[in-house]
């Protein structure tokens, strides 16, 4: 069994409406090994969710469609599978949890029904065994009195509890890959920490690889082995967590790092934001997509798109000035600062 | 829930009483002495007088009213002089025929309207969707009597496929029965079919882009179950409301349809009885229809709970909050 679980090559996803084409994902590549976690970070609109949903071929079509690339899962290209084969993978080998637990469970079915549905679909078990398994899953995700909870409806659960239920559904068939699209963003801070803790614990138990989409870099440092930094549908930096944490290279990644609220930030310390906003994906982008917002630009940035270069082992960057030979000096964070407003 | 249903049943009484009062006043306001009309032009003045007394029509209005309400509360519906039988037997004879017509129309409406609405929602903005929108709009605005006459002209008179009037008999075989049933059912089903289709489309469109539908797909469910189980059950609440309204208004539609197709149900009976000034039949049939109306509405309200676990019933004044 090869150690490589997922290899995405040059994935392209477009949305067509009338004559306009939105290039939401524009050549994303990465690999993920078994039991490894990868974080996908980037501002909102950078194509993280579209990338993740494409992996399960769940892009709403029309208007969306996967216009190029390969998604090799255990060596098979998912894009060449039949609908039936793809359904056998969804919820079984690869499952997904979404951002908003308040809307991602079906309000008119009991929680038990929703967990058992997956189990009955993918495993040859009796109704009774499915129920047993559902109770066990609820227990695992830390829901008290699972036998009783099984017959309750989602509206009788809190947000954090519902996300636990979603995790129970996602893990009920022992998937090899779990895609978590901002699983904690919609939750209270304290609940966020509990859910993350739970995911970490369960990943050890289930040996599942996780694709963690987040804009909280803290989460990435904590649970991921690799990071993919996305901007305007492109990967602009990709590497191991150690590399990206200690030696981030792309000016956009620097911006992301500077704009994180860290624990040890002082009251009067400054927090930077990246000026400007991401480009309109409906228009052809010439040059580097980040150039209009970058404070290191030269002429070439506006005329030629930078290639992805492996500047160090396991560290790829797409910037004209970050290559094997050249390095860009990171400026002091002085520009575009705003005070942290503490309430 | 039990308390809620009891409350609702008690609530029906005033509704039915109001209907009783109104229909009483209307039948008494019809021009002409009912006794004279019932007996026909050849009747003598004495005969008319005897019948008037027998029917209690010489009593003051309020006495007539209390007699009538009193009998009603005892479940005593009285006898029809023109049909020469107890009202209750008349209902037992005619009502099943109306039920047959209404149920087959309802089946057509559900089996055609709901799938059409689902497909239109799935293929929003396709050619099918545009055709669907046009036809369903035509359907809801179709006058039943006009449609009924057109159906008769085309399928009975021109093509000779189906009989134009009457109700077939099972004694003649199921074929005879069904061929009589088809045209009136289609006439009665047209408006509800279009209504179901439109409401299904719009509520499915609302539901289809929800996150839980995405969750259902991500579990590996077949698209059929994603749509027909996860999405559709969420779209059911508005559909149930329309179902209740349509069953109720089908009672009105049945009167028209039965008249056009001479279908021997309670609709035709009422029209007949009005012509014969048999106010006893008219009164009782109207109250009977009102009773069906409120019962259907109660059943619909109860079934909300079955499709939507978030609805909690408060006992007492009814309503579904
Ligand atoms: N259903 C859709 N229809 C049209 N465009 C879409 C759709 N979903 C996403 N997009 C486009 O894809 C871009 C990336 O979206 P997304 O992947 O959701 O970003 P994020 O990184 O915040 O998850 C959006 O800016 C939008 O232009
Ligand atoms: Mg997103």
UniProtKB/TrEMBL annotation, chain A:
SUPFAM superfamilies in the record: P-loop containing nucleoside triphosphate hydrolases
Subcellular location: Cell membrane
Keyword terms: ATP-binding, Cell membrane, Membrane, Nucleotide-binding, Transport
PROSITE patterns in the cross-refs: ABC_TRANSPORTER_1, ABC_TRANSPORTER_2
Pfam families, sorted: ABC_tran, oligo_HPY
A GO cellular component annotation in the UniProt record: plasma membrane
Membrane topology: Peripheral membrane protein
Molecular function, one GO term: ATP binding
Domain of life: Bacteria
One BP term from GO: peptide transport
Keyword Aminoacyl-tRNA synthetase: no
Limits of the ABC transporter domain: 6-257
UniProt-listed PANTHER family: DIPEPTIDE TRANSPORT ATP-BINDING PROTEIN DPPD, OLIGOPEPTIDE TRANSPORT ATP-BINDING PROTEIN APPD
Record-stated family: Belongs to the ABC transporter superfamily.
Record-given protein name: Peptide ABC transporter ATP-binding protein
Organism this protein belongs to: Peribacillus loiseleuriae
TrEMBL record, chain B:
A Pfam family per the record: BPD_transp_1
Compartments in which it is found: Cell membrane
Main location: membrane
Keywords: Cell membrane, Membrane, Transmembrane, Transmembrane helix, Transport
Any Gene Ontology CC annotation: plasma membrane
Biological process, per Gene Ontology: transmembrane transport
Topology in membrane: Multi-pass membrane protein
Residues annotated as domain ABC transmembrane type-1: 95-304
Protein name (database record): Glutathione ABC transporter permease
Provenance organism: Peribacillus loiseleuriae
């Amino acid at each position: 069994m090869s150690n490589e679980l997922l290899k995405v090559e040059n994935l392209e996803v477009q949305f067509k409406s009338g004559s306009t084409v939105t290039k939401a994902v524009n050549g994303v590549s990465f690999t993920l090994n078994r039991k490894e976690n990868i974080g996908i970070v980037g501002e909102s609109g950078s194509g993280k969710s579209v990338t993740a949903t494409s992996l399960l071929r769940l892009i709403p079509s029309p208007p969306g469609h996967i216009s190029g690339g390969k998604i090799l899962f255990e060596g098979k290209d998912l894009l060449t599978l039949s609908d039936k084969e793809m359904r056998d993978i969804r919820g079984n080998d690869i499952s997904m949890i979404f951002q908003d637990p308040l809307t991602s469970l079906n309000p008119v079915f009991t929680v038990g029904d929703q967990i058992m549905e997956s189990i009955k679909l993918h495993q040859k078990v009796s109704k009774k065994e499915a129920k047993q398994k559902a109770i066990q899953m609820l227990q695992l995700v830390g829901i008290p009195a699972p036998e009783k909870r099984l017959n309750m409806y989602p509206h009788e659960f809190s947000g954090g509890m519902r996300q636990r239920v979603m995790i129970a559904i996602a893990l009920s068939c022992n998937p090899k890959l779990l895609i978590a699209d901002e699983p904690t963003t919609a939750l209270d801070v304290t609940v966020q920490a509990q859910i993350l803790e739970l995911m970490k614990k369960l990943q050890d138990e289930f040996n599942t690889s996780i694709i963690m989409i987040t804009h909280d870099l803290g989460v990435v440092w904590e649970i991921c082995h690799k990071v993919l930094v996305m901007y305007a549908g492109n990967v602009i930096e990709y590497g191991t967590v150690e590399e990206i944490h200690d030696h981030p290279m792309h000016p956009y990644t620097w911006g992301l790092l500077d704009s994180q609220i860290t624990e040890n930030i002082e009251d009067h310390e400054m927090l930077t934001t990246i000026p400007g906003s991401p480009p309109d994906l409906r228009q052809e982008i010439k040059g580097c997509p980040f150039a209009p917002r970058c404070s290191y630009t030269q002429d070439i940035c506006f005329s030629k798109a930078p290639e992805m270069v492996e500047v160090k082992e396991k560290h790829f960057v797409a910037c004209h000035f970050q290559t094997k030979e050249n390095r860009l000096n990171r400026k002091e964070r002085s520009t575009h600062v705003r005070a942290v407003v503490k309430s | 829930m039990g308390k809620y249903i009891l409350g609702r049943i008690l609530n029906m009484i005033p509704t039915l009483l109001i209907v009783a009062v109104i229909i009483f006043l209307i039948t008494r306001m019809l021009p002409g002495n009912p006794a004279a009309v019932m007996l026909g032009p050849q009747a003598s003045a004495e005969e008319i007088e005897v019948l008037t007394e027998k029917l209690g029509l010489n009593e003051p209005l309020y006495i007539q009213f209390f007699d009538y309400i009193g009998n009603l509360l005892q479940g005593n519906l009285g006898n029809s002089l023109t049909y020469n039988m107890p009202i209750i037997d008349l209902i037992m004879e005619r009502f099943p025929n109306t039920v047959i017509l209404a149920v087959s129309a309802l089946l057509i409406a559900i089996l055609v309207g709901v799938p059409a609405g689902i497909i239109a929602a799935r293929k929003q903005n396709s050619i099918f969707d545009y055709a669907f929108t046009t036809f369903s709009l035509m359907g809801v605005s179709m006058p039943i009597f006009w449609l009924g006459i057109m159906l008769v002209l085309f399928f009975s008179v021109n093509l000779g496929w189906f009989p134009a009037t009457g109700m077939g008999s099972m004694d003649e075989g199921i074929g005879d029965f069904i061929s009589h049933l088809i045209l009136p059912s289609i006439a009665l089903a047209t408006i509800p079919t279009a209504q179901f289709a439109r409401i299904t489309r719009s509520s499915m469109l609302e539901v289809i882009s929800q996150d839980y539908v995405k969750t259902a797909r991500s579990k590996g469910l077949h698209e059929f179950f994603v749509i027909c189980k996860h999405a559709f059950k969420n779209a059911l609440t508005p559909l149930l409301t329309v179902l209740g309204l349509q069953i109720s208004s089908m009672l009105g539609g049945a009167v028209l349809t039965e008249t056009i197709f001479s279908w021997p149900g309670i609709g035709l009976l009422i029209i007949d009885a009005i012509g014969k000034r048999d106010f006893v039949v008219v009164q009782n049939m109207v109250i009977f229809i009102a009773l069906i109306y409120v019962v259907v509405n109660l059943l619909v309200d109860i079934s909300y709970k079955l499709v939507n676990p978030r609805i909690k019933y408060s006992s007492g004044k009814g309503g579904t909050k």
